[in-house]
Amino acid sequence: MINPFAGFNANxxxxxxxxxxxxxxxxxxxxxxxxxxxxxxxxxxxxxxRGCGKTMILKYMSNEIQxxxxxxxxxxxxxxxxxxxFIGIYYRFDGPSLSIFQKRGISEIEWETIFRHYLExxxxxxxxxxxxxxxxxxxxxxxxxxxxxxxRDLEKYIFDSYPLETENDTFEYLIEKLESLSKKVFKFIxxxxxxKNPKFESDFIFSSGSLIFGVPAIIENNIPSFKQKKxxxxxxxxxxxxxxxxxxxxxxxxxxxxxxxxxxxxxxFGIKTFDTMNKDEFxxxxxxxxxxxxxxxVTDSDYLQFIxxxxxKRLEKTEDFRNHEIFNIEKILGYFSPEDEARKIVxxxxxxxxxxxxxxxxxxKKHVHKMREVLLQxxxxxxxxxxxxxxxxxVCEDNPLIDMLNLVLITRGKYSIEELQQVTQLxxxxxxxxxxxxxxxxxxxKNKLALIFKLISYxxxxxxxxxxxxxxxxxxxxxxRNFIELCYQSFKNDFFYTSGSILxxxxxxxxxxxxxxxxxxxxxxxxxxxxxxxxxEIKSLVQSLGAIYSSWYSDPRISEPEITYFYVDKTTLSPKxxxxxxxAVQWSVLQQKExxxxxxxxxxxxxxxxxxxxxxxxxSISYRSRGRIPQFMAExxxxxxxxxxxxxxxxxxxxxxxxxxxxxxxxx
Amino acid sequence: xxxxxGISIEGELINDYLPQDIDIFxxxxxxxxxxxxxxxxxxxxxxxxxxKIVFFYDEVINRRESFDGSxxxxxxxxxxxxxxxxxxxxxxxxxxxxDESTGLRSFNDLIEKEYDDIDxxxxxxxxxxxxxxxFFILLKLMNNKKIRKIYLLYTEPKTYVVKKLNFEHLxxxxxxxxxxxxxxxMLSFSGCQNCLKxxxxxxxxxxxxxxxxxxxxxxxxxxxxxxxxxxxxxxxxKDISLLLNDEILKESQxxxxxxxxxxxxxxxxxxxxxxxxxxxxxRYNISLAPLGPKPMALGCCLFVLENPECRxxxxxxxxxxxxxxLGYEKTWLYIIEFDHE
Lengths: 668, 341
Prior knowledge:
The complex is a heterodimer.
Chain A: H1 15-21, H2 29-34, H3 36-40, E1 44-47, H4 54-60, H5 63-72, H6 77-83, E2 86-92, H7 95-98, H8 108-136, H9 144-159, H10 171-191, H11 210-222, E3 230-236, H12 243-254, E4 260-266, E5 290-293, H13 294-297, H14 300-316, H15 319-323, H16 329-333, H17 338-347, H18 359-362, H19 366-378, H20 387-394, H21 400-412, H22 417-428, H23 437-456, H24 469-475, H25 480-498, H26 502-505, H27 510-528, H28 535-552, E6 563-568, H29 575-586, E7 590-596, E8 606-611, H30 616-619, E9 627-628, H31 634-642, H32 645-655
Parallel strand pairs in A: 1-4, 1-5, 2-3, 3-4, 6-9
Antiparallel strand pairs in A: 6-8, 7-8
Helix pairs in contact in A: 1-5, 8-10, 8-11, 9-11, 17-23, 19-21, 20-22, 21-23, 25-27, 28-31, 28-32, 31-32
Chain B: E1 2-10, H1 14-17, E2 21-28, H2 37-44, E3 48-57, H3 58-61, H4 73-83, E4 91-95, H5 100-114, E5 123-126, H6 132-144, E6 149-160, H7 167-174, E7 184-185, E8 198-204, H8 209-219, E9 223-229, H9 235-244, H10 246-249, H11 252-255, E10 259-261, H12 266-280, E11 284-290, H13 294-306, E12 311-314, E13 325-340
Parallel strand pairs in B: 2-3, 2-5, 3-4, 5-6, 8-9, 8-11, 9-10, 11-12
Antiparallel strand pairs in B: 1-13, 6-13, 7-12
Helix pairs in contact in B: 5-6, 6-13, 12-13
């Protein structure tokens, strides 16, 4: 059976698959479909975490996909040209290819010249291929004479010559000529290590922007329907370009010439410099470029709808699921409430309501034992013999989370035991008019997920469940690829362990989903060490953070619920620690959120870093950003990243919430 | 244009195929036990070598490795010179393992200085513990120098370093730390990329699945063709490699392309890659990632020498792993003949 979620990396998708699985993210529809934001604004830096969907969007905007899609849909020339808002020219910065434009005994200045020349050739070839594609699909509104004139104008402009033979009046011929120039670049690069004094030579050496800006102007002059249309150069994975290469491209952005504009996709912290080749100039936000951050634009509710649409479309496009009319990911993954999970923990099975109330049996439950122990410790008035009467008023067999909330409140000591019994009873009787109802209800609502973790701690080896559509969406941490990977793993496990019973049942068991979430979490964790430069340091930091966060979940007072983030004054950090944090954000291991104000007015803003929620199952922590550990000091962070194992262990222990309930975790 | 032909011969038959006098023996040092086996084989078979040129990697000689932990750089140098029976005419080239351009320059300077007509000399080249970018670039240099015939020696390891050989512990056992650079083009093997073509990636699978995944992510290929070593040195290696590469093989579009080539036969690997190339060269830029056993990597190298428009990508290790293999098994002789048209 085909897994509808196999293939989650847009990089690896064929054009047809991008068209097949495409869903327009609502808030970005203006940018993607009409390009209105591109037409009216300076070039755009499109930032987003790894796997958020940038590549899919940029590829979708490319002329290759747009032409192909219109061709599939049978759209005629007039309609195509009428709806044409912009022409997207997609180019991805392939890391290995870019790395060849350096060293080999050649000066930096010479490499700059070669790279500029090569970039001009690449984009120019892309322009001409776009014309060829349009011609192939009969979307070019010029006749044969116009076509010949266009080719001759291009030839004249690019090579300062005219084709000698009339049969050479083709786009293919122009591409071949450019290709021969490109081959010279590669030949030089490949042979340079064997030469004593390598010197690059070519019939033409293009200067910066000469073709990138010049060729669209010629196309615009020759093709009536292209007048007033923007040529959008879609540069993907800008983070792969070296600083020197970014300087060259930044200069093009600074001096962009209509009808050309840029839409540049990059991970956070992927822009290595905002300088240009001219030492007196740099890129100024709003004047020279505008930033769109995927995570900022796509809000939580948009995101939920977006991933649902993506998943449902994949199901629809997969024969087995289409034939069985299983199209709804929300139904397949389902939903369980914290109360459902609490009953599962205490009674060992998923149940909406318990079969029979039996206090004598219920009081034997481990968490109720704990409550009795705490009660007896806290107040001398309660003796063991009469403790049942008190406990009866503090527990709810239908909802063990109430028991847990009361256990926490007893520990905190804010309510008297009598008062707590009364509030519990009025809450259970739903007496909303009582003024004491609301604060208790708010307390319950705010803490119920944290209470689950607390409850689990009394029922080892029970593990936190990570299943259900909403939980998967939160685990994905705003990154579509994470969500698709979670679905992929769940479907794969279902196929493997139940021989694909999903087609009959139309859902996947929560346990199976939890198992899958654990696998994806572990895999994500494993990949961290492969991050170039600081992989091991980031992994070590994550490991420490996981242990620290996790320790706070057994805090009997739940003084800080659901810890998943930390904050730090970045200005106090060493450059190396900053680099590590930036790299962790670039690879979406940490996600930077809106800065917080310091304790006193005038304090610098504090930088907030959330651990990617996909790691929640790995460390048995929450998938929400609610709680934080006390502010990190620069030296603590330095040690957690670069210290030796003993030092790391000391700092980790210092920051852990150690209670009598928990044993210290041994990390290293 | 170059055409390469060759045969593989197992250790015991080496004497029948090698000339009794060899002008140059090229090798490199490493702490793996198989390091001197090729040289010892020549010795025991009475083959005379006029000069040995051995690459002394800084990373290897600077490493405290031996016996009582008191070894120094000088002692290590002496140790390796002794295992290769160095005489006054032999040459040690001190190079950085992670920078093959230094090795290339030293070697090139040496042969330009000492040999006017290198193509007239008989050369034997033991690449058992030589890092891949080195033997790639050295073979390319020999090709550029119009050398017609090279004898290559390769000694199989007995096993790779493992803690436990069962499925549960497999990943931990084989999963090396992620100290690799992002994948980059091997020096002088950037091929000729046409930006209008899609990319196809041929991965010779090794045991480090994460490296294969990183290469796939970096290259962004429309098509990925994994080649697994089969028959492998040991029967279980074939399956271990599949299990450890599950992250890329889970993609149905990739696993359907899975091919096999014998781990110890570069010519079969080269043939397999040639078939893939013929089928896809018009539509794709072909990139190759030689992550698997060295004889397969040699096959890849020979293929690229014949087809220089293809590129080779490789995530470079950032630190030397002195214990990557244990023991040794058969030694193979590969005879390569270049036909420079």
